[in-house]
C-alpha cells in the first residue's frame, strides 16, 4: 500500500502521522495519507509567501507556458491519476462519465485557462488624462476541495490562481486526498519552487486556513454549512472568497416532451457521478399530462444502467463515496416515504454494510417532502407533478439553494422564458449540468459567492489597480 507525501517548497514533506484512505467499493484501505498539523500549515504558508514574490513577477506569457506544460503532464499521467480516483472515490474508470472523463476535463480546463489573457484596460485617454486598469495577483490562495471530483475541482481552483500570479496551498478532502496529492507532486516537477503546495488532514486544518492571516484568498467547494463557517472565520482578516456551495437543482419538464426521448438526458442530468455532483438535478418537476409516462420511461432507462466496482467491465455508476453521505441519502429516502413518497425504483436499504445505494426514483406530490427540500447528493431523485408553468416556476424557486436548473421542452422560446424566471446561476435547456471552461459558473442565494471558469473566473483571482497619469 502506497504512502503518499505532501509538497511544500517543491519538496516532499513528510508528517509524523498518517491515516488510511478507504476504497468505497471494497471498504479496504488503498493508501496512507499524511496527516499534517497546524504547525505544518504555518511552514507551508511561509514558503508560499516567499514563492509569491518571485512567481508574481514572472511575465504572464511565461506563466501561460508553465500551465500548458502542466496540461501535457496531466495528459501523460491521466491513466495513473484516474486509477487513483477510482480507488478512493469509487467512480468507474472507463465509464462515459467516470474517472478518465474527469481527467479529460482536468486537461481541457487547464489548456483553456492557459489561453486566457489579462490585458491592461485603458479607461480614459484624452486631454484630461490617461487611466489604466491593471489586474494584480492577490497573494497566497488556499484551495479547499471536496471528495466528489477530487482532481478536476482542484484544477478549477489552482490553475486560474497561479496563472494570475498567485501561489496556492491545496487541501483536499480527507476522503479522497491521494489523487490530488499525486497531481500536485506532478505539478511540482514543472513549476518553480513553492508555487503550489499540498496539505492534508482533519477539519482542524480547514479551520486554521480560514483563520490564518497569511492566507489572502480562499476558494472553497463544499456544503453550504461549511461555507458559512469558512466565510465567518475569514472575516477576521477580510479574505477574498470564492465559494461554490450546495445545490438543489430543479428540472422542469413541459407537457410537449417525448418521455422516451428525454429519459436518458434526465437520468444523466440527475445521476452523473451517482448524483454526487453539486450541479446534478436534485428535483424533477413534470407536467401532470405526461407525469406517468416520464416516470415509466425514466424507470425503464434506470434499470438499464449498471452499478458496480469501478474496475468492473460495463459499470457506469459506483458507490456512494462515504458512510456519512450514504446515511444521509438513505434517511432522506426513508423520510420521503413516511411523508407519502412512493418508491418507483430502488431504496431505501435496511442493511448498511455496503456503500452501494441503488438508483432510486420516488414519486412525490408534496413540495415539502424531505427528499425535495434537502440536497440528497446521491442516487435518489424525487419526481413531482405540476399543472401550470407558473406553479412549476414557484416550486422550483422554493429553495434556499440556487446553483443550477433546467427546462425541457420542444418549444425553446417558451423554455427560455421560463429559464429567465428561475433563481439560479445557470439554466440549461433540454440538458442538465453541462458546464464548460469558457462559461462562468457559480450560484445565487445560499449556493455560493462569486464565479469560476472563463475570463470572469480568472479575474476573481486578481485585485484591481488603477493608474492615473
From TrEMBL:
Q: Catalytic positions? A: 244
User: What region holds the Aldehyde dehydrogenase domain?
Assistant: 16-465
Superkingdom in the source lineage: Bacteria
**Keywords attached to this entry:** Oxidoreductase
Tell me if Transferase is a UniProt keyword of this record: no
Q: Which InterPro entries match?
A: Ald_DH/histidinol_DH, Ald_DH_C, Ald_DH_CS_CYS, Ald_DH_CS_GLU, Ald_DH_N, Aldehyde_DH_dom, LUC3-like
A Pfam match: Aldedh
Q: Does the keyword Oxidoreductase apply?
A: yes
Recorded hits in SUPFAM superfamilies, A to Z, give: ALDH-like
Using the record, list the residue span of the signal peptide; answer none if the entry has no such feature: none
Q: Name one GO molecular function term.
A: oxidoreductase activity, acting on the aldehyde or oxo group of donors, NAD or NADP as acceptor
What the record says about family reads: Belongs to the aldehyde dehydrogenase family.
The protein's name is: Aldehyde dehydrogenase
- Source species: Marinomonas piezotolerans
Amino acid at each position: 500500500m502506497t504512502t503518499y507525501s505532501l509538497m511544500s517548497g517543491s519538496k516532499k514533506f513528510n508528517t509524523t502521522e498518517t491515516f488510511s484512505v478507504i476504497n468505497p467499493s471494497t471498504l479496504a484501505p488503498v493508501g496512507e495519507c499524511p496527516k499534517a498539523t497546524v504547525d505544518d500549515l504555518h511552514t507551508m504558508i511561509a514558503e508560499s509567501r516567499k514563492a509569491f514574490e518571485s512567481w508574481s513577477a514572472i511575465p504572464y506569457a511565461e506563466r501561460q507556458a508553465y500551465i500548458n506544460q502542466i496540461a501535457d503532464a496531466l495528459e501523460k499521467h491521466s491513466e495513473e491519476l484516474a486509477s487513483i480516483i477510482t480507488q478512493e472515490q469509487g467512480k468507474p474508470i472507463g465509464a462515459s462519465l467516470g474517472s478518465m472523463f474527469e481527467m479529460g476535463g482536468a486537461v481541457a480546463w487547464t489548456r483553456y485557462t492557459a489561453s486566457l489573457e489579462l490585458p491592461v484596460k485603458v479607461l480614459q485617454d484624452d486631454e484630461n488624462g490617461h487611466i489604466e486598469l491593471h489586474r494584480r495577483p492577490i497573494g497566497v490562495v488556499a484551495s479547499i476541495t471536496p471528495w466528489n471530483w477530487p482532481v478536476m475541482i482542484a484544477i478549477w481552483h489552482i490553475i486560474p490562481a497561479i496563472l494570475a500570479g498567485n501561489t496556492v496551498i491545496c487541501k483536499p478532502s480527507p476522503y479522497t486526498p491521494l489523487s490530488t496529492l499525486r497531481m500536485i507532486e506532478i505539478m511540482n516537477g514543472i513549476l518553480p519552487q513553492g508555487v503550489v503546495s499540498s496539505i492534508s488532514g482533519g477539519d482542524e486544518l480547514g479551520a486554521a486556513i480560514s483563520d490564518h492571516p497569511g492566507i489572502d484568498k480562499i476558494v472553497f467547494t463544499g456544503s453550504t454549512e461549511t461555507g458559512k463557517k469558512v466565510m465567518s472565520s475569514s472575516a477576521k482578516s477580510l479574505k477574498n472568497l470564492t465559494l461554490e456551495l450546495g445545490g438543489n437543482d430543479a428540472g422542469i419538464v413541459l407537457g410537449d416532451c417525448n418521455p422516451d426521448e428525454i429519459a436518458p438526458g434526465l437520468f444523466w442530468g440527475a445521476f452523473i457521478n451517482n448524483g454526487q455532483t453539486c450541479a446534478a438535478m436534485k428535483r424533477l418537476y413534470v407536467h401532470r399530462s405526461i407525469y406517468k409516462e416520464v416516470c415509466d420511461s425514466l424507470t425503464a432507462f434506470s434499470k438499464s444502467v449498471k452499478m458496480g466496482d469501478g474496475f468492473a467491465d460495463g459499470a457506469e455508476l459506483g458507490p456512494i463515496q462515504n458512510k456519512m453521505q450514504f446515511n444521509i441519502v438513505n434517511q432522506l429516502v426513508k423520510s420521503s416515504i413516511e411523508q407519502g413518497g412512493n418508491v418507483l425504483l430502488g431504496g431505501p436499504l435496511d442493511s448498511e454494510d455496503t456503500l452501494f445505494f441503488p438508483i432510486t426514483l420516488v414519486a412525490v406530490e408534496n413540495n415539502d417532502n424531505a427528499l425535495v427540500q434537502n440536497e440528497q447528493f446521491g442516487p435518489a431523485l424525487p419526481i413531482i407533478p405540476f399543472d401550470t408553468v407558473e406553479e412549476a416556476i414557484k416550486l422550483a424557486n422554493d429553495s434556499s439553494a440556487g446553483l443550477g436548473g433546467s427546462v425541457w421542452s420542444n418549444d425553446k422560446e417558451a423554455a427560455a422564458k421560463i429559464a429567465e424566471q428561475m433563481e439560479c446561476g445557470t439554466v440549461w435547456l433540454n440538458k442538465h449540468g453541462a458546464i464548460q471552461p469558457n462559461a462562468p459558473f457559480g450560484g445565487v442565494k445560499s449556493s455560493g459567492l462569486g464565479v469560476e471558469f472563463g475570463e470572469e473566473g480568472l479575474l476573481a483571482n486578481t485585485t484591481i489597480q488603477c493608474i492615473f497619469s
